[in-house]
Amino acid sequence: MLEPAYQADVVIVGAGVAGLSAAHRLTSAGVRTAVLEAAPYPGGRMSTEKIDGFRLDRIGQLLSTSYPELRRTPGLDALALRPFAPGVLLHSDGRRHRAGAFAKPRSARGALHAVRALASAPRAPRTASVRGVPGPTALPRVRAGAPLGTAVDQARLGAALARLATAPVERLLARPELPAAQALAERGVPTRTIDGFLRPLLAALLCDPDLTTSSRCADLALRAFASGRLCVPEGGAEALPELLAQALPPGTVHTGVRVTSIATTSVTTAEHGEIRCRAVLLATDARTAAELLPGLRVPDFHPVTVVHHTTDEPPTTGASLLLDADRGGPVAHTAVISQVDPTRAPAGRTLVSSTVLGSPSPDIDTAVRMHLSRLYGTSTARWETLAVHHTPEAVPAMRPPHDLRRPVRLLAGLYVCGDHRDTSTIQGALHSAHRATAAILTDLGAAGSLNRAEPLRAAA
């Protein structure tokens, strides 16, 4: 049973990245904090299975080096990020094309000059060699039939991404809100650019193959892509929450503790009875949060399946993220992840991790192998399947209208955070925790404020 010493100023329910990052901010401010987690380990959905020296992510959401909260969150100073090769590889019509690795022009005028110069330049001979693409992943020059179209089309897309990379976030949030697919079409983006590049890229970033996501969330995802590099945590997804948990004061995180009810000044657990406190922060997934606090909105979810294979001979795509622009099979994106992060596979072995969006078919491994054979241009018959991880409620959907700043202060003394209160990304989870702890510290510092209840918004 928890001893009186465990009584805290703030009890956080849930030891995912939102709860753990909130605990760091509170303890750094001198607030006594206890984190209660029902699972036997912290981390929530950011978990990694270890099999025979391989580290296999269960969901494997992509991160960006440009996420502000990765730099701002206390406890993440030592986080090592492993970047993918610049841009992405697109598979279309049996060929692979590099896209998105655009040089950033210094100004909009410079971008316009680049487009005009490409439009007026003579066409290079078809035998011209590729320059500036390092390593064994060098690819043929992109032709008019490639996913991005002509050189002018590519320059225009590069200029648009460069502008997006430096656009103020508030300006993006002020744009009219539509489903992402509709917004792209109404903005005059060429259909070839949407289907050949933006749709597969956004599907990978948002886990939404149909692009039903709010256009504002899609703009934020593209901004992060354009201003940084896609990356993964070294050692697996669990490295991020593990780092947060290990850096907290000893005795802060308590695993195997199931909370059955919450109030503004206490939580009740199945194992240890009532734990009294001055405030409660609910930092669980959306469904668990709604079970503990009826009235909270439960969003729809995007299911994700990750299939992990190993082979003795790695495909020749290097550290690139490979997307299927043709949508010719179940795999949305795949990577030789051991080339990106060598710590995820034993020496001399290769780890290929592939993501399937939506509900998987019963013969998912067979379908994935056939698709990967086409994407990588090699036989997968002798590849070994290490694991198939299916998560039905992997990523909260962000269909319009989507409130990116959903309230985190429900009552004085009762708060909630998580990716379901912000954007459905690691950045969103961390940012919601930042907002929630700011509200808690304000209330704890205001005399008597924790005794004044505020109305609970409907479907908060």
From TrEMBL:
InterPro entries per record: Amino_oxidase, FAD/NAD-bd_sf
Record SUPFAM superfamilies: FAD/NAD(P)-binding domain (SSF51905)
Amine oxidase domain boundaries: 17-441
A Pfam entry, by short name: Amino_oxidase
Any GO molecular function: oxidoreductase activity
Protein name: Oxidoreductase
Species name: Streptomyces caeruleatus
